[in-house]
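Standup notes, structure subgroup. Blocker cleared on the zinc ion input:
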Amino acid sequence: MRCEKCGAILEADDGYEHAGQVLCEDCYLDIKAAPKVCDPWAVYTAKKEASQNPTLTSIQEKILNLIREKGEVTAEEICRETGIKEEEFRRNFAALRHMELARATRKGDEIYFTTFSS
Ligand SMILES: [Zn+2]
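Run returned:
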């Protein structure tokens, strides 16, 4: 089984269904966190902004620092340590992901957030 969006190979129970498509965790999280992730212009703009002007909001900086410091963190930990709401985290994490600074990964039943290159 493959993710219909990015083509990643999925374990039998790893697929997420969204609008009739089977997606990998990353693509599914992207859709849930940021409905506009499929817009190539938005991703292009985010990347361009990140390379030209790597200024993050203070929340994004806090999230990224925590991820860099700990390697892998859960959403609960991030929300607890930074004092933001989960919804706020999801929105800001989507921005970090678009800038290719952070990504989500799954271990067992837990979703962890980690740096893009690790
Ligand atoms: Zn995918």
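Discussed briefly. The beta strands are 16-18, 21-23, 72-73, 102-107, 110-115.
Next: hand off to the docking folks.
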